[in-house]
Specification:
The chain is an alpha/beta fold and about 325 residues long. Helix content is about 20%, strand content about 30%.
């Protein structure tokens, strides 16, 4: 009787142990993929009404936005974090997202209400996408995906700053987004570093563009009146004739106020630097040294539950609970 009882109790405790293994395994995988961030496991998030924010901390105001923070989301669903049609202020930060299509997708939210900061997006088709969400901020994210690390579409007057995008087709793609600023980003080992398509009056400055297979910065034929200056171009489009291309109109490859252009690792040291493309653009004032730029470290956060403590607790319960229950049953058997 005692042996049978102990076996039953051990079987009952196995699910607890198994769940602990799953948590530990997921966190270890997170450590390998997102610079040792300690996060809480979470299902994909979908917010399609303002009221759906209410499960998160915050009030939805500019002073106290809703905060979606500290989640590890790995899913076979199309989107890891999806927010659409909202009017309240919110911030998505310190999350690791690995989904099928979009890691973080912000669509048609009120202008100036979205901040996406300090997230890691891996293995998605698009790491971070903002569509029809003007005056947004995308800052200090790491995107290693397949198609685009960061894609902004129809999101005028937004800011893309301090992001790191590698191993994508395009590191950063700005589509149909005017008066946008892309600054202090690092784009390396992509097919294309930063791409502007149908985007006018943008400023692309102090970015580090290195070892992209083709152009470090590419301006499409419908991208006009943009300023590109104080960027550092190193070994992009090796074997080509230029590290950038321009098929737009009236784009300036220097700061018109300071008369300073960009640093090109293959510049001869004298004269102008020619830009490939039908625009026949040139950098009139190439820099002798790489432009100084700063990057903000991808910070880490502490998870709300310490995984090691959780492991110890589960292990202790697995050992102690069967012993206590066995003693109780044994005592009652003797009394009976």
């Amino acid at each position: 009787m005692k042996k049978k009882t102990i076996v039953i109790l051990l079987i009952l405790t196995l699910p607890i142990y198994a769940s602990n293994i799953n948590v530990q395994s997921s966190v270890e995988e997170n450590d390998n993929g997102s610079t040792s961030l300690e996060l809480s496991l979470h299902d994909p998030i979908s917010i399609t009404f303002d009221s759906f924010f209410e499960v998160f901390p915050g009030a939805g105001s500019v002073e106290n936005p809703y905060i979606i923070e500290g989640y590890y989301i790995k899913t076979t669903c199309g989107v890891g974090i999806y927010i659409t049609g909202t009017t309240r202020y919110f911030t998505v930060r310190n999350c690791y997202v690995d989904a099928v299509l979009y890691g973080i997708y912000i669509d048609d939210v009120a202008d100036g209400t979205a901040i996406v900061i300090n997230n890691t997006c891996n293995n998605n088709i698009y790491g971070i996408k903002l569509d029809t969400s003007g005056s947004s901020i995308v800052s200090n994210n790491m995107c290693n995906d397949k198609d685009c690390g960061i894609l902004l579409s129809s999101s005028d007057s937004s800011t893309v700053v301090n992001n790191t995008c590698s191993n994508n087709w395009a590191g950063i793609f700005l589509s149909s987004s005017d008066s946008l600023t892309a600054s202090n980003n690092t784009c390396s080992n992509n097919d294309l570093g930063i791409v502007l398509g149908d985007s006018d009056f943008c400023v692309v400055t102090y970015n580090h563009l290195q070892e992209n297979e083709e152009c470090g910065v590419a301006l499409a034929s419908d991208s006009d009146n943009n300023l590109i200056h104080h960027n550092t171009f190193v070994d992009n489009f090796l074997g080509g004739t230029s590290q950038a291309c321009d098929t737009g109109t009236d784009n300036y490859w220097h700061d018109t106020a300071t008369k300073e252009g960009n640093y090109w690792s293959d510049w001869s040291g004298t004269g102008v630097y020619s830009i490939d493309g039908e625009a026949n653009s040139v950098d009139l004032y190439p820099l002798d040294e790489p432009a100084e730029y700063t990057t903000t470290e991808h910070t880490t956060i502490e998870s709300t539950t310490d995984v090691n403590q959780l492991s110890f607790t589960f292990a202790l319960l697995m050992l102690v609970v069967p012993l206590i229950l066995t003693r109780i049953i044994s005592k009652k058997t003797k009394e009976g």
